[in-house]
Write a structure and sequence with these properties.
5-stranded mixed beta sheet; single chain; 7 strands; Nucleotidyltransferase, domain 5
């Protein structure tokens, strides 16, 4: 005797669990993305409405109120930062650099960094400000 079994072929996809997971992932990314900013805490000078924000640049250099130089969050000397920037330019010839200077920072320290980068051949060097 042979028995014939009928299989219940339910080929529909349940979308509700997938939508729940995607909603949770979206919420997590929306909450964590603003906290992923890098760099040190600076009081940036205020400029016009079309101020340079520096969010889309490859290298972020900061000068704090004591005249210390930072590449992202790592404190380095001015010459070490220039050497690292030159090494990064080998991978990306169109490299853009943004310098963020605290409002209390020595103007000479900020311009010294900018001058060293220009002397090293960087054409796209800008100053980051905070919009008014």
């Amino acid at each position: 005797m042979s028995r014939l079994r009928r299989r219940n072929n339910d080929t529909s996809i349940q979308l509700t669990p997938m939508i729940d997971v995607m909603t949770v992932l979206l919420a997590v990314f929306m909450v964590t993305t603003p906290m992923m900013t890098t760099g040190i805490d600076l009081n940036l000078p205020r400029a016009g409405a079309s101020a340079m924000t520096g969010h889309d640049h490859a290298i972020q250099i900061s000068v704090d109120k004591n005249g210390n130089y930072y590449l992202s969050e790592t404190q380095l000397t001015r010459d070490e930062i220039v050497k690292r920037a030159i090494a990064m330019r080998g991978e990306n010839p169109q490299l853009t650099i943004t310098i963020s200077g605290d409002t209390s920072a020595d103007y000479g320290a900020v311009m010294s960094m900018m001058g060293k980068l220009k002397d090293a051949g960087f054409q796209k060097v800008g100053l980051r400000t905070q919009p008014e």
